[in-house]
Design brief:
Number of helices: 11
Structural class: mainly alpha
CATH class of the largest domain: Mainly Alpha
CATH superfamily of the largest domain: Tetracycline Repressor, domain 2
Strand content: under 5%
Number of strands: 0
Length: 199
Amino acid sequence: MGAAITRLQIIEAADRLFYEKGFEATSFADIAAVVGLSRGNFYYHFRTKDEILGAVIEHRLSKTKEMLDAWEAGAGTAAERIRSFIHILIVNQAKIMAYGCPVGTLCNELAKLDHIAKNDAAKLFTLFRDWLSCQFAALGRETDADGLGMHILMRSQGVAALATAFRDEAFVRREVEDMDQWLAAQQPDPISRPNTVSV
């Protein structure tokens, strides 16, 4: 097995464990056990857990960019692309109900720890915010695109948090349907509707 493959396996194992157990609760031994490495071989790739965290954040940013690029390539309209974001809650429903949103949980934990990487983790939210803002601008809502993007990002985070608390699949599906309806109402209509965020 090549060094690059082993390094990627470590990053992917750490990513999953940080999500499921939390960053602070995950040890080197936990990650090494999943990958099947001795501590010596493990240290060849990463000397500290903070190094692994940095690699995990970069991995998540890369995977998120790939997903957003795929949505750009696959969906015909801005509204369809925004719906792809909203429907993450359904696609990842089981994991979200069990562990929360992977972005939100990591950002919250690192903020509580006042960890040096907390701002790097927040780049994941910034990536979604900027992308959503671009989609609302493409939808014809240039003047309030960022506010609309932040609204749907905030709402999806709220749904994820309550999904984890209540483990209620019907609630998640109702909220996704409601967000779909909200999105449909954001089509610009200069005669009857000003460009403001409606909730």
